[in-house]
Amino acid sequence: MKTIKLFILFYFLAIEVFSQNDKGVKMMITLSGKDTLVIKKFDENQNLIFHKIFPQYGVSQLLTWEYSNNKIISYTWTHSSRGIIEQEYEYDSLNNLVNIYSYKLDERIPIKNLMSYHSIYQLKRSKEFQNYLKNGKRFLETTQYFDADLKTKELIYSSDSRTDTVLYTYSNHLRTNKKHIYGHNGAFNEIIYRFDNEGKELGWTKFFSPADTAYVYTNLYQNNLLTRVTSKDRGKLSSIEKYEYSEGKLKSVQQFNGKDELKISTNYVYDEYGKILYTDEMNKYMGQLKRTHYYY
C-alpha cells in the first residue's frame, strides 16, 4: 500500500499542474502511429476529469476526477495490476479543502478489461470498484489547515503509527517554503521557492538537511515568457528545458540531459484563431514519436 500511495501522490501532483486548459479544450488524444496512447477529457470548467493511459510495457491506467460546483470531490486511480485507490474530499464552510479520505484493503483488486471503460460513471459501476468500496475500510488520510485561505499545515496519516507533518510559509501570498517532516524518524525535506519583484517564480531548491542541497531548479524569462529551466542534482547539471515562442505563443519545448543531449522535443501547431491543433513529440528515451490532437 505504501508504494501505491507514493506513486499516486507523485502522479496526482504531476497531473494537477496540467489539469486546467484556458483554451477551452474538451478532449486530447495522443497517438503513436495508429496506436492510441492517451485520452484526456475536460469538463465545462476546463477541469481534467478523465485520463486513460493505454497499455505500455504491460501496464494500463485510468484516472478520473469528480467535481461539484467546480470543487473536486473525489479522485480515482486504477491500475491494471495494482488495483484501485479512491480519494474523497471534504471542505469547511469557507470552501477550504480540509480532509482527504481513502480506503484500506487487505489485498489489491485489479479491474479486468480496464480499457473498456470510457467514463467515470462506467468505472464506478464496475463490480471491482463496488467491491473496493464495500470491503475497504475508509480512513482519514490527510488533514489540512488554513489561515486566510492559505494552506499552512498538513497532517498525513501514513500509517497507524506514523503521522507526517507538512508546513507552508508565504510572503505576499506567494508560497516561499514547504517543509515535510517524517513522523517515524523526524527527518525532513524542505523546498524553498524564489520569486522576482513581479511574482514570477525564479526557481526552487530542495534539500534534505542544511548540508545536503539535493535539487536546484532555476527559471529564466525574456519579455515575461519562460525561456529556460535548468536543474541540478547535488551540484551536477541534470537537465535543461528550452522554450521558444512565435508571436507570444509557445512554439517548441526542448529537453536536454546533463550531457547537453536532446532527449525530448515538442512542437506546437496552432489554427488561425490561435488554438492548439496538435503537438508533435519525439521522445528519445522511449524511442517514440507521438502526436496529441486537441478537440474543442
Give the domain tally: 2
Give a count of the beta strands, DSSP E runs of length 2 or more: 20
Shape: globular
Poorly predicted ranges: 1-22
Using the CA coordinates, give the radius of gyration.
21 Å
Q: How far apart are the termini?
A: 38 Å
What does the main sheet amount to?
20 strands, antiparallel, barrel
Overall helicity: 10-25%
What is the string of helix and strand elements?
HEEEEEEEHHEEEEEEEEEEEEE
Structural class: mainly beta
Q: Mean pLDDT, nearest integer?
A: 90
Instruction: Count every helix, treating DSSP H or I runs of 4 or more residues as helices.
Output: 3
Strand content: over 45%
Describe the protein.
There is one protein chain. With 296 residues, the protein is mainly β. It has 2 domains: 1-142, no CATH class; 187-296, Lipocalin (Beta Barrel). The protein is built from 3 helices and 20 strands. Strand 17 and strand 18 form a beta hairpin. 10% of the residues are buried.
